[in-house]
Amino acid sequence: MPDRELTFAEAIREALAEEMRRDPRVFILGEDVAEAGTPFKVLSGLFEEFGKDRVIDTPISEPGFSGIGVGAAMTGMRPVVDIMFGDFLGLVMDQVANQAAKVHYMSGGKLRVPMVFRTTMGATRRSAAQHSQSLHAWVSHIPGLKVAIPSTPYDAKGLMKTAIRDENPVVFFEDKMMYKLKGIVPTDEYTIPFGVADIKRAGDDITLVATSSMVQVALGAAEMLKEIGIRAEVIDPRTTLPLDKHTLVESAKKTSRAIVIDEGYEQYGVTAEIASVIADGAFYYLDAPVKRMGALDVPVPFSPVLEDLTVPTEQSVFEMAKMLCGK
Amino acid sequence: MTDHIDLEQSLHMYQQMAKIRAFEEQVNELYKGAKMPGLAHLYTGEEAVAVGVCEALQRDDYITSTHRGHGHCLAKGARVDRMFAELLGKEAGYCRGKGGSMHIADPDSGNLGANAIVGGSAGIATGAAMSAKMRGSGQVAVCFFGDGAMNQGLLYEVMNMAQLWKLPVIYVCENNLYNEYTHNNETTAGELSARARAFGMCAEIVDGQDVHAVYVAMQRLVERARRGQGPAFLQCDTYRYYGHHVGDINRAYYRSKEEELEWRTNRDPLKILGNWLIGNSLTDQSVLERIEADVNAEVESGVAFALDAPYPDVSEVDEDVYA
Ligand SMILES: Cc1ncc(C[n+]2csc(CCOP(=O)(O)OP(=O)(O)O)c2C)c(N)n1
Hints:
The structure holds two protein chains of two kinds. Chain A has helices at residues 8-22, 46-50, 62-74, 89-100, 103-106, 136-140, 153-165, 213-227, 245-255, 270-282, 304-307, 314-324, and strands at 3-7, 26-30, 55-57, 78-82, 116-121, 146-148, 170-175, 182-186, 198-201, 206-210, 232-236, 239-241, 258-265, 291-295. By secondary structure, chain A is α/β, with parallel strands linked by helices. A seven-stranded mixed beta sheet of chain A has the order 3-2-4-5-7-6-12, sandwiched between helices. The longest helix of chain A has 15 residues, at 8-22. Chain B has helices at 7-32, 47-55, 70-76, 80-87, 122-135, 153-164, 192-197, 211-226, 257-266, 269-279, 285-308; strands at 62-65, 111-114, 141-146, 169-175, 178-179, 182-183, 202-207, 232-237. Chain B has a six-stranded parallel beta sheet with strand order 2-1-3-4-8-7, sandwiched between helices. Chain B has a two-stranded antiparallel sheet with strand order 5-6. In chain B, α1 crosses α2, α1 runs antiparallel to α3 and α2 packs parallel to α8. Chain B is globular, with a radius of gyration of 19 Å. Classes of the chains: A alpha/beta, B alpha/beta. The complex binds thiamine diphosphate. The site of thiamine diphosphate (TPP) has 16 residues of chain B, from β3 and β5.
């Protein structure tokens, strides 16, 4: 079957459509998901194909429809709940962290919550402090959840299909800056297992562990590093929960240097967890401390000149890698 | 009192209430004897609500429960021995000892779990009703919560959707007057049921000490929900005899001894049903005493079972994080 190029948004839509065709229990719940197809148009066309009983517009009641998703998942359905912006996770955290994540364990394994919370992350859209955060570290903190943060259309489709088929609650982060990103997506059926990192580019001088949109940044930096003779390996964990510790540690052992790049806030962030995993597993192989690069620890500012300072860039990753490699 | 409820059913409801009462008395003893870890929120005094409501349900209908949930679980069909085992953190418990008093779940009897977040299960119950409607199963879902939970926003978000989408869910508010240690006239503006009526929802208020009244109202609401006529709200006025939790002994600063005595003496759900049965010459005292003796025996052997039961193996601590 021929491969084609799809955008990140099209890949997610295709995953949802295929899963809804495959499994009548799958349905979508959220604000403006039906005719409007969400503000980002990620779901365009699903309402036309699946109708109002499976693509359901809700009131602006994030905790309410998230909780309804939990109850529906517990009783035989497989809801995909759309949280328009990741920032609104603050509203639904009880349903995510206290309800969805805990039901299986608290019930001694008798109940389960097979559902997906789809939401966004990512700054640099001039959306200001309440629409720009990358809050995947919040949910990656909670046992019982799974957390996917894809970086390419291919990964987005394969991980979304896995998320929908998973028996557990999955929080699925889509970087809104990547919706138009194009990439090869096979027409053949495939899924991508959770907890398996992907080597996006092989190299042996330094490991760049990057997540979501930062994968593109790391790949750009790797290209620049090549010019000065540094071969960078770019690794994308693809899911922060579960986390593929093995691949991260093996890469760091091979290269002896590592930078972790992520768009969440740096303090107490995903980068801290990954850096600690690498430091623990590859300590005797490292030639330098593991470095972390995350979003600046400030509410994301509106002004473009300020906002652009808050996220790691190809240039800043390049500089950090150069320094670590002693060049 | 309605007289179309037959004797057999009345005696069954009496038995269920007596079982909850005996169960809770034992919980009190276990807790005071330091045999039960954690917290215990007793349901004593409120038995007619759980029993009247669950009597109108079928086994595969759903309930969600609260921190004060032992009565709901028993009324929906949970076994005494496995309940005690769960309360003591034993492997034979409904959740293998991982849930405890505030998280008992028993999918076999339609119990989707007690919830320690006040109001937290309103979404789950509403979602279960949505799922029942989507699957065309004919099931209904009941959401139990206290009057304190009436000030949580989640409840109103889901009531709005339940009414918009005509979901088969019944919101049962157990109005026992107190939100922990504060009377609800200090916490709650307006009328409780008016809040449900604001959504255009069918709302009723019943005497929550009268099990027949609860049952009859509930039957009506369940039938209309099954017919596709949508959700309803049932306010049951009731009272908890003990403190908010077992350790809440000095209650004088928030409610009087006279008030407690008045409810216990003149508003007791077991006495109300017992007097009605005897007053109408439907049964006599000896029948009620035998019922009580039977449930006491069941509760005693349940406690013995739980005390003897083994704790879970330590290897279970990280089991069931994921399904
Ligand atoms: C969200 C939340 N806030 C506070 C608490 C602490 N708390 C536990 S029970 C309770 C009072 C609940 O009152 P009500 O809903 O009337 O139920 P009742 O105890 O009277 O049955 C409170 C405040 C909690 N468990 N959850």
